[in-house]
Amino acid sequence: MITDIVVHGLFMLFAISFMMGLATVFTWVERKQSALMSDRIGANRCYIRVPFTNVKFVAWGLFHGIADGGKLLLKENFTPHTYDRLCYNLGPWLAAVPVLLLFTVIPFGGTLRIGDSSYPMQVAQLDAGVLFVLAVSGIGIIGIMLAGWSSNNKFSLLGAARASSQMISYEVAMGLALLTMVVTCGTLDLGAMVRWQSQLIGGVLPAWGIFVQPFAFLLFMTACIAENKRIPFDLPECESELVAGFFTEYTSMKMGLFMLSEFIAIVVVSALVVTLFLGGYNLPWMTDAGFAFPGGATWNMPQWAVVVLQVATFSVKTFLVGCFMIQIRWTLPRFRYDQLMAFGWKFLLPLAAINLTATVIIRWLAL
Amino acid sequence: MNKPTTRKRYWNEPTMGLWERIYILEVIRGLWITGSVFFGNLGKWMTGRKGALTTYYPEEMRSDYSPNNRGRHVLTQRPNGEVQCVSCNMCATVCPAYCIEILSKADFADPAHPKAPERFEIDYSRCIFCGYCVEACPEDAIRMVKDVPNLPGFDRTRMWGRIDLLKLWHPLTDPRKRYPAPPTGPSEPSERHR
User: Fold this and answer.
1) Residue B32's domain spans which residues?
2) Which of A41, A327, A332 is opposite residue B52, by nearest beta carbon?
3) Are B92 and B176 in the same domain?
4) What pLDDT digit, counting tens, does each position of A78-93 carry?
5) Are B113 and B167 found together in one domain?
6) Residues B118, B165 within the same domain
7) B154 — contact with chain A (CB < 8 Å)?
8) Is residue B166 located within the same domain as residue B90?
9) Are A243 and A158 in contact (CB under 8 A)?
10) Is the ipTM of this complex over 0.85?
11) I need a labelling partner for A131 at 20 to 30 A (CA). Which of A188, A201, B67, B151 fits?
């Protein structure tokens, strides 16, 4: 009983610190990666000084995220005087909490065995994990709409309208791409989907989603970037037209919460992509007991080593996918708004539907 | 009844071939370009070379300043090391940025130069490097040299060029405007002019 509570508490702690920590790291990655990409040096001024000495730890500018957080916390909380008090204050929370909730169903490791009991490394082991992901990611729109509508500003309202229409449009394509994987794996449980992906195709290639459903991977990735409201799809907060979109009227940590939830969304979406299409916490040919190579050779590892390796694999994969998303963000120019809608409804959605239909037919014939 | 709007066609509108219309191929090409630059610079950085065109300013400076660059003020000196300035305040008057501050002192023991600056300070956070002070000076006491003040700081009060900075100049080594050689005789030459 005590062990249960401790283990689940540790899982929750890991989930929250993983998201917060990786989101802070991604703010640094975004600065540094874009700098290296354009022959610059990037942020490198913040340091932590050892007290009473002149020894400064710069760490390649890693502390800029902490400095930003501290600065946002200490700023004046300026609010316009014509705003809806309740909705205005509720907006950031409703935008940030669903993003944090999304991580609960994502398995970040295999099964942890302590004594007789075994714990799947997941905050909440839901049978309907995919449905939970779709449902909760839809709630985030409400926060954005509330924020835009309640701050009594045309820029905010336009941004919120754009954000909600964009997120709803791309959620359809994202849902269809997810359904394709559900049909392929035959389960709604994300943990079971990862276990399904650890089998082999033809005895050699791991059955990762990216190899089984490459089209669905592309569609899902595109829809995810659109859901994140990042650059090729950043119509809700485009600086050139709407000052900052739906959070124009927010200052200090309320604005920081929107920014933080954006970066946490990158982490969560990368984790989702890893779980659904990149084999989750497993390396190729890895099982809960160790490695089983295609030639028939096996390498048994102790349980703790497997668990540590799985968590590390999951973290590194998530980090790399997030870096890829940042690479896309600094490479592509932005869509026009009509192009965005046309791309979502006339291109992504039919492709996702065709892909789903083909998958269903193949799956039906195979049964 | 509104006419259906048609988008204006521009003469230089880009034409998209099949390659661009597929879009994903162009995305991959763009990612290839940015990725190659990124990994090239990362490799340079990891092997200790410089992977950026920009400079890490106060620690490293550009080497390609123009020979005509006039970035720092110096106060010329008499052979005995005193500044040549008579603190007439002409430079401070003409300065369009109002960044020169002069505090005078009197020295009646030297009848040729009874007035001299006790403090001569230039606020480099406000100086626009126009060179008017050099033009206005009746005594050729202030000049500008090819250098930068290099006073970056987090604080405006630390960006003042004080008299010890302004005197950091060796008059005899300036090939352009040679300072007259120290007279031999009763006045003892200073250490720094040898």
Assistant:
1) 16-53
2) A41
3) yes
4) 887 777 788 888 888 8
5) yes
6) yes
7) no
8) yes
9) no
10) no
11) A201
